Amino acid sequence: MSQQVVCIACPVGCRLTVMKGPDAAVSVEGNRCPRGETYGREEALSPRRIVSAVVPTGSPDFPVAPVRTDQPLPRTLVTELLRTLYAARAPLPVRQGDVMIEAFHGVRVVFTRTLPPDDVSSVGEPGSETKG
User: Fold this and answer.
1) Residue 128 binned pLDDT confidence (cut-offs 50, 70, 90)
2) Exposed/middle/buried for residue 121 (C-beta within 10 Å: 0-12, 13-18, 19+)
């Protein structure tokens, strides 16, 4: 069984042909560097993905907070993670790098942007300047 994959291990983007033999042996063709061979093997045996998403906050000013996994997650778990994130609510304020989920199948989910508290809606509105 063969599979066509575009390598994302480096900027070249080699078109790989990954073949899985009956004895679970994997061969990779088309790579121009060793990273392509490693990527092709991993993609055939256990594909993993970094997941980026947004989480609802309940704030009218900042309705969502961006998050991502801190390391690749098995592709079979991506849908489960997204359901978990979309059902959650992120309380504001949050800081970039704060952990939202400590351990989702061994992977942490962290905020990728700092968002202020929900009660700053008057900042920048006319009349909110301090007169002195």
Assistant:
1) very low
2) middle
36 and 64 assigned to the same domain = no
For residues 107 and 76, membership in a common domain is answered with yes
* Mean pLDDT along residues 60-65: 95
C-alpha 96/C-alpha 50 separation (Å) is 17
Query: Quick check: is 79 in a domain?
Result: yes
Question: Cα angle vertex 49, ends 55, 102, to 5°?
Answer: 50
In a shared domain, residues 38 and 62: no
pLDDT at site 121: 53
84-105: per-residue pLDDT in tens? 999 999 999 999 999 999 999 9
Bridging pattern class, strands 15-20 and 2-6: antiparallel
**Amino acid of residue 93:** P
Residue 110 φ then ψ, to 5°: -120, 155
pTM across the whole model: 0.77
Let me know whether 62 and 40 are in one domain.
no
DSSP 24: S
Residue 59 falls inside a structural domain:
yes
Residues 63 and 24 in one domain: no
